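## retry 2 of 3
previous attempt timed out at serialization; input unchanged, resubmitting
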Amino acid sequence: MSDVEVTHNESLHQYEAPVGGSMAVAQYERHGSEIVFFHTEVPRALRGRGVGTALIQRALDDARAENLTVVPMCSFVSHYIGQHTEFLPLVDPVYRARIETAASRR
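## retry succeeded, writing output
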């Protein structure tokens, strides 16, 4: 679903994608130059439509633009990065090794 509009709600520390009356979110915390993604929620009705992918793509693009180190505590974010390895250089080295190991097992 390439037409998903994702917004960055800085006051709530989340990326949001409203679709058809439902809201998907990717929540984070900022600690200096780190951004810690700890939860992604895509309502059941929106799953399989690329909404979560659009959320994380936008969030990681923003992290890259701001030169932030990504700490993917959320399994969805970790899995996404494992499939889109162009984002690996953004990831904290400890988590990068875990993602690379998990990706090599697939």
